[in-house]
Structure prediction request, 334 residues.
Amino acid sequence: MPSREVPRTWDGLEIALDDPPGCAVVVRRPGPAGHPEFLLLHRNAEGADYEGDWAWTSPAGCRQPGEAVYPSALRELAEEAGITGRLPWAVDMGRRSGGGGSWAVFALDVQGDTEVELVDPEHDRFEWLSAEQAMRRVRPSFVAQAQIERVSHIGLAAPRFRPMAETDFADVARWRTAPHVREWFHGELIDEATVAARFAPRLAGDVPTRMWVVEIGDAAVGYLQDYRVSDHPDAVKTRDMEAVGFDYLIGAPDLVGKALGTRMVWEFCRDVLARDYPDAPRFIACPSHRNGRSRRVLAKCGFSEGLWIDEPAAPGRVPDTEVVCTLDVRHWFG
Prediction:
């Protein structure tokens, strides 16, 4: 069987054969009247006057063979815009149902006085444009839609994570009884006393599960938990005892469907799990097969779907099936 020809970039560098083949980082800064402006670079390969397809792009480029995805995005951001020391977050890692995918898209918010430096010779100039202007400038149109339009609808507030405290139990009870959450807990109604009975041992370290609260600004909006799969006998069902598992929910109903879930999961994996479990080869989450929103969030963060696990039904409950979603830490974070 003939070997597959290795694709190359315009300047002769080899391109990774595995997905995603490249990364784009959509950079935005505060603009007039609170509307963000987007950074676009003009490619000079076709000359300074060229305005056709791919003339204007966000910082972007192909992955090199063996290069992890996130380091690839950071490298392109530094090489093409001179921006370093910043942490872009995931918008869509290009995973598609059934395998395959497209370029990974990240986003980064910067201050208005952030300096841009065209380090490599691929671009001859840059501009900061409104979303509407950038949409008209970026071609083909599907690229503008996948990058500029999508990021323009995402809020500017960044999530923060802190350890859960007993003073959070009232919020947890309120979140767990919200209709959009209760659906995934078999309709269970839960009060603060029940939360305390379940979660206080975790906060005390008597149960090997760590609890976190996610905040937007000064407001707590949801929680997450993480654990080593090997510490929980019932988690053996995932068939991955080396992995670190986690669960999450957004309790504030007004923040559901606003792309917060994708950013929250990505930054939790990057800033908490990768930091605290440096030896973990994989991170896993197991949403219900019916929870399409959660499965889409995980796919956008680079998780791939694997085992489907039938959960036995407790008395009075309907049986469910969970989908084991796995993130290859080395492939995505290096």
